[in-house]
């Protein structure tokens, strides 16, 4: 608690569905990020360890590195059947690396200009980290710019494994009745059927990729995923490239942007079987695999 000045609002650097994140300083002077899970009465001691078991052994340059954790269980008063009773309330904290540049979301929405070369570096890093997770049978299930932290060299680190799932060996998909995550980045088969697979992350990656590209363009962000996909399908053509800042992108970069838009569109295919794997995505990003033909998305209809 001393590390974060009793979790003061001044040290709060992020918030999510499972907890809040604070900047902290340990006794040896090391600056860290401390994620405090939202307290739960009738504390389920297994819940925090589910997250630990998913990511504690992960070691990759594009995955946030855990440094430790702590658990404090206290007794609080609660009303049960009209009477006050004692109940356990657990407070669980994760300690992890502190990223001074904050989240990718903050960078993309900030006033600092981020050139295409830097954006492409982040796109590649996210793809590498996600491919590594899938090799470990881990499905993140909440990939989005807010959960991608950026270090001092602008390298992305995937973080927040609060709703991540680990697939059993030899199992390609499972089902979950308790839907959790962020609606805008959620794959349709998970949203409507609870189907969990690595293709859910591929969908989230595609959405994140397209949003990263739009951040370098002189337009406002489309309000929903349907319009974003329709717009990106049309904007990828050379005739629409005047929307990019020509003074800041050479011809080869414009072609790279176009390719990334097409990869993003492949990743957000409604049919998960048509989406590439993250291994395919990396191969396409690195130019060692040809992109398959795109399927034209259903036209966006504004019903407002």
Automatic annotation (TrEMBL):
Alphabetical keyword list: ATP-binding, Kinase, Nucleotide-binding, Serine/threonine-protein kinase, Transferase
Superkingdom per UniProt: Eukaryota
MF terms in GO: ATP binding; protein serine/threonine kinase activity
Sequence ranges assigned to domain Protein kinase in this UniProt record: 7-301
EC number: 2.7.11.1
Record-listed ATP binding positions: 36
Enzyme class: transferase
Keyword ATP-binding part of the UniProt annotation: yes
Reactions this protein catalyses: L-seryl-[protein] + ATP = O-phospho-L-seryl-[protein] + ADP + H(+); L-threonyl-[protein] + ATP = O-phospho-L-threonyl-[protein] + ADP + H(+)
Record-linked InterPro entries: Kinase-like_dom_sf, Prot_kinase_dom, Protein_kinase_ATP_BS, Ser/Thr_kinase_AS
Similarity-based family: Belongs to the protein kinase superfamily.
Name the UniProt record assigns to this protein: non-specific serine/threonine protein kinase
Organism of this sequence: Setaria viridis (Green bristlegrass)
């Amino acid at each position: 608690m001393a590390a974060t000045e009793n979790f003061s609002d001044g040290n709060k650097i992020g918030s999510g569905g499972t907890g809040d994140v604070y900047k902290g300083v340990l006794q040896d002077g090391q600056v860290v990020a401390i994620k405090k899970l939202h307290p739960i009465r009738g504390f389920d001691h297994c819940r925090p360890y589910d997250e630990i078991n998913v990511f504690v052994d992960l070691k990759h340059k594009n995955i946030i590195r855990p440094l430790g954790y702590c658990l404090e269980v206290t007794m609080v008063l609660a009303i049960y059947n009209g009477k006050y009773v004692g109940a356990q309330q657990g407070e669980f904290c994760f300690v992890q690396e502190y990223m001074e540049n904050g989240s990718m979301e903050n960078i993309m929405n900030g006033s600092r200009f981020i050139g295409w070369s830097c954006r492409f570096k982040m796109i590649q890093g996210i793809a590498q980290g996600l491919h590594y997770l899938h090799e470990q049978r881990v499905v993140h299930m909440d990939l989005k710019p807010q959960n991608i932290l950026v270090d001092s060299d602008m390298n992305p680190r995937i973080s927040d494994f609060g709703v991540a799932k680990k697939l059993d060996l030899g199992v390609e998909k499972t089902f979950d009745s308790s839907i959790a995550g962020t609606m805008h980045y959620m794959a349709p088969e998970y949203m409507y059927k609870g189907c969990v697979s690595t293709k859910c992350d591929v969908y989230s990656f595609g959405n994140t990729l397209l949003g990263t590209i739009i951040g370098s363009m002189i337009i406002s962000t489309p309000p929903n995923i349907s319009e974003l996909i329709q717009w990106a399908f049309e904007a990828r053509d050379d005739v629409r490239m005047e929307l990019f800042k020509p003074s800041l992108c050479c011809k080869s970069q414009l072609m790279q942007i176009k390719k990334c838009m097409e990869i993003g569109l492949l990743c957000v295919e409604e049919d998960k079987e048509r989406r590439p794997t993250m291994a395919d995505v990396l191969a396409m990003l690195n130019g060692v695999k040809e992109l398959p033909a795109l399927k034209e998305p259903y036209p966006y209809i504004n019903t407002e």
